[in-house]
Design goal:
- Helix 5 runs antiparallel to helix 16, helix 6 packs across helix 7 and helix 9 crosses helix 10.
- By secondary structure, the chain is of the alpha+beta class.
- The chain is built from 18 helices and 29 strands.
- The chain has a seven-stranded antiparallel β-sheet, covered by helices on one side. A five-stranded antiparallel β-sheet has the order 7-16-1-4-28.
- Keywords: GTPase activation, Metal-binding, Repeat, Zinc, Zinc-finger.
- This is Ras GTPase-activating protein 4.
C-alpha cells in the first residue's frame, strides 16, 4: 500500500502585469516552488504584460508538503531577474477545494519576512531545580534547509529565544543552511504559565540589519502537561507585522488551475475484481437492447473529468492488452447513435477523448519522428512562410510502417467500422482517421510544439505565424475538402493546388496504413509504450570534478553524454561514441540537488552510488536549466524506485578540504543533514504503466458516480423496458452493473480498513503566529 499526493498545475496566462523594462514592457516567466524548492520554470514570453503560457504539469510528491507558490519573474539579460509578484496556495486550501483551485488570482508582493523555509530540531522541557524554582529549558540541536540570504548562496544563522521579556542568543554558524548548534538555554518559569516561548532563526550580517529566517512559537502551558517534547518543527513566517495592501491588485493576476489528489493505492490484487469486470465488459462488446457500462460512464462523468477518465481507461486497457478492443467498443457505441457523416467524432465524447489520449500515450515517439525535423527547421531558419506551397506540401505524412502497430490496428478497426456504418459515404471513413491523426494530434502539436515536447520554448510571434499556417494546412488536408475553406478564407486560394495534392497523398497514406494486414499477431500491441530497455533520458551534462575513484570521476572529460535506460546510467564522450562506463541502477543510492554555493553554479545534481569496490561515491553533474535538472532527477528516481538500498538522508553540499560545505561535519561518511526526495517526480507521457494507480483513480471516479449510475441506467432504457417507473422498482439490475456496485463496495471497505489510525493529539501546542 502506498500513500502519496499528486499535484496538477496548469499555468494559463497573466494579465495587467507591471512594466519592469525601460521599454514599458516585461519579459515574464513563472517559477513553481513546492515548499520553497523550485521544480518548474515556464518559458519566457517576451515583451508583453499579458503573457499566455498554457503549460500543464503533474508532480508526484509525499503528502507532507505544505504549500505551492508560483512566482512571476521578469527575465533580464544583464542583471538579476526581477520578482513581479507571487501566488501562494497552501495544502489546506487545496484540501478545501477537492475539485481544484482555479480562476484568476491577484499577485501579492514578495515580503522578505514571509520568504522562510526549513525546519529546526528542538528539545523543550519543564523541570524543577534544586532551589525549588521551575525552569524552562530549550536545547537547540540543528536546522536544515534554511533560506539562503547571502550572495554566497548560504546564510550565517543564529537562534534567538524569547520568553517572558527576556532573550538569549546562540552562536553564529557561518556559511551554512544546515547549522548544528547543540546549545541549551534556560529560563525561569513565570507564574502563571501563560507565556509563550518564541524560537527565532536569523541570518547574521556584518553590515546592515539581520535577515529573518523563520520562527516557532510554543505554548508553555501545553508544555507543562507534556513535561518534554522533542522533534523537527517547521519554521513559520512572521505575521505579527501589519501588512500593507497598497500593492494588492496593482501587480496583475494569474489564471491558474491547481488540484491536489491524495491517493492511497492498495496492493494490485485488491483491484483485480474491478479490472476483471471492466475487461470482461470490453470482451463481450456491444449487445443490442442493453445499456453498456461504458455508455453509463460516458453519460454520467462530467465534461471536466472526461479527459482524465479517458486517460485512466486507455492506460488500464493498454496494460491488459485490450486497448484495441476497448476503442473498438467505443467506436461501435458511438456509431450506434444517430449521427451525420460530417460531424462524426467531432464532439468531446468518451470515444473522442479516449482516442486522443491513446495517440498521446502510444504515438509521441512517432509524432516526434514525423514533425520533429520540420519544427526544428522552422524554429532555426526563422523563415517567414506566408503562402509558399512548398512549405505545406505533405509528401508522406510519415511512413506508414513507422506508425506503431497498435495505432495501425486501432485505425484499421475504425476504418472498417465507419465504412460499414456509412456505406454510401466511403469518403467518411478516411475523414474518421484524419479527424484524430491530423485535427487532434498533428495540428495541435504544430501550433504548440512546446506542449508536445517538440521544443523547449514557445515560438516568437513570427514563428508562431508560420506554425499557424502549417497547422491550418494540415487541418484542411485532414478535412479532405480544401474547397470548403475557399469561401471562408479567400487568401487560401493560392494554396489549393498544393492542398489538393496533399489530400491525394493523405488518402493514399491512410489506405496503406489500414491495409497493412499482418499474417501473425502484431507484437507488443498491448504492451506499455516504453519497454524497460528503452532509453528513458539522454543528453550532455557537465561533470564537476571532486576527489573520488568512481567510473564517472575517473574520466578526463568535463562534458559527457549520459544515457539512462531501464538498467544502467551509462556515459560516453558523444551520443554515437563508445560508452566509457556505466552505473547499474541497483547501485544508485540517491539522486538529489546540490547547493549552488558548492560549485558556484546553479542546476547541479548529485548521483550517489556504490562503485565496484563497494565504496560510496558521488558524481556531480550540471544541467543547463532548472527544468532539465528536475527532469533528470525525476527520471533517475523513477527507474530506481524499487532499489532497496536508497538513502534516507544526504548532504546537499560537497566534501571539500576536511568537512562538508553544507553542515560542516568532518566525517566524509557521516550521516546526511537533509532528507532525500525519492518520491518527488514529474509525470511524463513516456512513464511506464502503473495498473494499480490507474485502477485506483477509476475507482475514485466510479465511487463518486455510484448513485447516478442506477438512475442513468433506467433513464437510458427503452420506454417499454422501463415499465415499472423511472427508478425501475421491481426490475433487477443487469449483471454487469450489479457486479460493479458490489466491487465498488468491497474496495471502499478495503480503503476503510487500510486507513491508519488518527495520531494522538500533541501535548505540546505549536502556535501558528
Amino acid at each position: 500500500m502506498a500513500r502519496r499526493s499528486a499535484l496538477s498545475i496548469r499555468i494559463v496566462e497573466g494579465r495587467n502585469l507591471p512594466a519592469k523594462d525601460i521599454t514599458g514592457s516585461s519579459d515574464p516567466y513563472c517559477i513553481v516552488k513546492i515548499d520553497d524548492e523550485a521544480i518548474i520554470r515556464t518559458t519566457t514570453v517576451w515583451k508583453t504584460l499579458s503573457p499566455f503560457w498554457g503549460e500543464e504539469y503533474e508532480v508526484h510528491l509525499q503528502p507532507t508538503f505544505h504549500s505551492v507558490s508560483i512566482y512571476v519573474m521578469d527575465e533580464d539579460a544583464l542583471s538579476r531577474d526581477d520578482v513581479i509578484g507571487k501566488v501562494c496556495i497552501t495544502r489546506d486550501m487545496l484540501v478545501e477545494h477537492p475539485e481544484g483551485y482555479s480562476g484568476w488570482v491577484s499577485l501579492s508582493e514578495v515580503d522578505p519576512d514571509e520568504e522562510v523555509q526549513g525546519e529546526i530540531h528542538l528539545r523543550v522541557e519543564v523541570h524543577g531545580s534544586q532551589g525549588g524554582r521551575r525552569l524552562l529549558r530549550c536545547t537547540v540541536l540543528e536546522a536544515r534547509d534554511l533560506a539562503r540570504k547571502d550572495r554566497n548562496g548560504a546564510s550565517d544563522p543564529f537562534v534567538r529565544l524569547r520568553y517572558n521579556g527576556k532573550a538569549q542568543e546562540s552562536a553564529v554558524v557561518k556559511k551554512s543552511c544546515y547549522p548544528r548548534w547543540n546549545e541549551t538555554f534556560e529560563f525561569e518559569l513565570a507564574e502563571p504559565t501563560e507565556e509563550k516561548l518564541c524560537v527565532e532563526v536569523w541570518d547574521w550580517d556584518l553590515v546592515g540589519r539581520n535577515d529573518f529566517l523563520g520562527k516557532v512559537v510554543f505554548s508553555v502551558q501545553g508544555l507543562e502537561a507534556a513535561g518534554q517534547e522533542e522533534g523537527w518543527f517547521r519554521l513559520r513566517p512572521d505575521k505579527s507585522k501589519p501588512r500593507e495592501d497598497e500593492h494588492r491588485g496593482s501587480l496583475g493576476s494569474l489564471q491558474l488551475q491547481v488540484r491536489l489528489r491524495d491517493e492511497t493505492v492498495l496492493p494490485s490484487p485488491c483491484y483485480q475484481p474491478l479490472v476483471q469486470l471492466l475487461c470482461q465488459e470490453v470482451k463481450l462488446g456491444r449487445q443490442d437492447g442493453q445499456v453498456h457500462l461504458v455508455t453509463l460512464l460516458d453519460e454520467t462523468i462530467t465534461a471536466e473529468c472526461r479527459q482524465e477518465v479517458a486517460v485512466n481507461l486507455v492506460k488500464l486497457f493498454l496494460g491488459q492488452g485490450l486497448v484495441k478492443e476497448y476503442l473498438d467498443l467505443l467506436f461501435e457505441l458511438e456509431l450506434a447513435k444517430p449521427c451525420e457523416p460530417n460531424t462524426l467524432f467531432r464532439s468531446n465524447s468518451l470515444a473522442s477523448k479516449s482516442m486522443e489520449s491513446f495517440l498521446k500515450v502510444t504515438g509521441m515517439p512517432y509524432l516526434h519522428a514525423v514533425l520533429g525535423p520540420t519544427i526544428t527547421r522552422v524554429f532555426e531558419e526563422k523563415k517567414y512562410v506566408e503562402l509558399d506551397p512548398s512549405k505545406v506540401e505533405i509528401k508522406d505524412v510519415g511512413s506508414a510502417p513507422a506508425c506503431p502497430p497498435v495505432i495501425r490496428a486501432v485505425f484499421r478497426q475504425l476504418f472498417h467500422r465507419v465504412g460499414e456504418r456509412f456505406p454510401q459515404h466511403q469518403h467518411t471513413k478516411f475523414v474518421a482517421i484524419t479527424s484524430f491523426l491530423c485535427l487532434r494530434f498533428f495540428s495541435p502539436a504544430i501550433m504548440t510544439p512546446k506542449l508536445f515536447h517538440l521544443r523547449e520554448t514557445h515560438a516568437d510571434a513570427r514563428t508562431s505565424r508560420t506554425l499557424l499556417l502549417l497547422a491550418k494546412a494540415v487541418q484542411l488536408v485532414g478535412n479532405m475538402e480544401p474547397a470548403a475553406g475557399r469561401a471562408k478564407e479567400t487568401w487560401l486560394a493560392p494554396l489549393l493546388p498544393a492542398l489538393q495534392q496533399g489530400i491525394a497523398l493523405m488518402k493514399d497514406f491512410i489506405t496503406r496504413l489500414v491495409g497493412m494486414e499482418q499474417e501473425e499477431k502484431e507484437e507488443g500491441e498491448g504492451q506499455p509504450p516504453v519497454p524497460p530497455t528503452t532509453v528513458v533520458k539522454e543528453g550532455l551534462l557537465f561533470v564537476h570534478k571532486t576527489r573520488g575513484k568512481g567510473p564517472v570521476l575517473a574520466t578526463a572529460a568535463k562534458k559527457l553524454h549520459f544515457c539512462l535506460s531501464g538498467d544502467t546510467l551509462s556515459f560516453g564522450k558523444s551520443p554515437g561514441a563508445e560508452r566509457s562506463g556505466a552505473i547499474a541502477l541497483g547501485d544508485i543510492l540517491a539522486a538529489e540537488k546540490v547547493e549552488e554555493k558548492s560549485f558556484g553554479s546553479a542546476h547541479v545534481m548529485q548521483v550517489v552510488y556504490v562503485d565496484a569496490g563497494g565504496q560510496q561515491e558521488t558524481a556531480y553533474l550540471q544541467c543547463k536549466c532548472v527544468n532539465e535538472l528536475n527532469q533528470w532527477l525525476s527520471a533517475l528516481r523513477k527507474v530506481c524506485v524499487n532499489n532497496p538500498r536508497v538513502l534516507r538522508a544526504y548532504h546537499p553540499g560537497v566534501f571539500r578540504g576536511d568537512k562538508w560545505s553544507c553542515c560542516h561535519q568532518r566525517e566524509r561518511t557521516g550521516p546526511g543533514c537533509d532528507r532525500t526526495h525519492h518520491g518527488v517526480t514529474l509525470q511524463e507521457w513516456s512513464d511506464p504503466l502503473d495498473p494499480a494507480t490507474e485502477a485506483q483513480r477509476l475507482f475514485h471516479h466510479l465511487l463518486g458516480l455510484r448513485g447516478t449510475l442506477r438512475e442513468k441506467y433506467w433513464e437510458l432504457l427503452e420506454p417499454e423496458d422501463a415499465q415499472n417507473g423511472p427508478m425501475g422498482e421491481g426490475v433487477p439490475l443487469p449483471e454487469g452493473l450489479s457486479r460493479l456496485l458490489g466491487v465498488l463496495g468491497d474496495l471502499e471497505q478495503c480503503h476503510r480498513l487500510a486507513q491508519p489510525p488518527a495520531p494522538p493529539a500533541p501535548a505540546l501546542l505549536q502556535l501558528q503566529t
